[in-house]
Input
Amino acid sequence: MGGEMVDPEHAASGDVMLSWEGREVVAVRLPRLSASLDHILADLERRHGRPLAQLDRKTKQSVVRALEERGAFSLRHGVETVAAALGVSRFTVYNYLNREGGLSGKG
Output
């Protein structure tokens, strides 16, 4: 997901502190959610072995379902980002979401 380990002394308020036997040992700085979507899309490309835009329609639909399950469309511009990665229009992404009874009007 693109997190970064940070020395506990340099932890910021939004970092997640991890402790071992009562002692803070590392802080994890999580990326912005939009950066996480980029990581998820890159991971999906690696898993499929090709750019997402080259996938067939059925596989693109399954990618959209997986992204919905991971909350990709709750992000601002999530639909636009996914549509660009898949090489389809926003309308097509909404159709994929509606076809599966998914969210509509988000993004």
Summary: The first strand starts at residue 4 and ends at 6. The CA atoms of residues 3 and 30 lie 5 Å apart.
